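Lecture notes, part 5. Sequence design as translation. It can be helpful to think of inverse folding as translation between two languages: the language of shapes and the language of residues. The source text, in structure tokens, appears below.
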């Protein structure tokens, strides 16, 4: 018998056979006799938070229970590579280079991620999560593969256009992300490019997100931003 464990916010998935939330699994099986699960394979799906993952993996190792994860042996990307302050809000693994402009990664979202704070169906992965994962892939790929040490984490990204296409639901198991950069240009350190991220589950492309973006010198963009902000604020404060 194979068992899938998902985060608590994907509780509706548990209406299906052999799927259980992380909290329920820990509650039912922690410190109990697990002899009936010795031959089982455990699959860790989406939504499991770090503290639960530690409890579960330690438990599986202690009881010699085979397990695998929806991200395989990949590692969650470091927060600084996707311009986040909190690690819990990172929703991708570190991208792997396939060719010059082709990359692969995996989606992973924990229950305590900001995107799952509201608008959760309990079953499928919502559309804005997919869009955010594509945005994080965009930033991570540029930071990892296209910026030198002197520029890394010192650039600012701006979005020009986002186009998303959803073909079918994505569920809280493995989601592969294949990313392709197109029309890449470097103008004195300012980058212009487009990225297409295909979200694949069970060998089916369930969604595509296409983003056009620019990468700027941080100081020059901040100067432009401050000028624009002053213009708007001055206009509003002058209205009587």
């Amino acid at each position: 018998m194979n068992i899938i464990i998902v985060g608590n916010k994907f509780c509706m998935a548990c209406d299906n056979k052999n799927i259980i939330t992380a909290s329920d699994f820990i509650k039912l099986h922690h410190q109990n006799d697990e002899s009936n699960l010795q031959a089982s394979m455990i699959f860790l799906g989406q939504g499991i938070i770090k503290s639960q993952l530690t409890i579960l993996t330690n438990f599986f190792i202690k009881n010699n229970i085979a397990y695998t994860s929806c991200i395989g042996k990949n590692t969650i990307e470091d927060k600084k590579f996707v311009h986040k302050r909190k690690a819990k809000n990172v929703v991708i693994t570190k991208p792997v280079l396939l060719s010059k402009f082709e990359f692969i990664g995996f989606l992973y979202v924990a229950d305590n991620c900001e995107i799952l704070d509201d608008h959760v169906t309990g079953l499928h992965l919502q559309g804005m999560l997919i869009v955010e994962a594509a945005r994080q892939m965009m930033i991570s790929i540029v930071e990892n593969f296209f910026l030198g040490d002197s520029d890394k984490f010192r650039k600012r990204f701006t979005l020009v256009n986002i186009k998303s296409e959803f073909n079918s639901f994505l569920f809280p198991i493995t989601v592969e992300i294949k990313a392709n950069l197109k029309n890449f240009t470097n103008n004195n350190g300012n980058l212009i490019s487009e990225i297409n991220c295909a979200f694949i589950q069970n060998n089916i492309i369930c969604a595509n997100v296409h983003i056009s973006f620019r990468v700027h010198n941080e100081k020059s963009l901040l100067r432009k931003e401050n000028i624009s902000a002053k213009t708007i604020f001055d206009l509003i404060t002058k209205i009587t």
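The translated text above is only one of many valid answers, since several sequences can fold into similar shapes. The chain has a mean pLDDT of 92.
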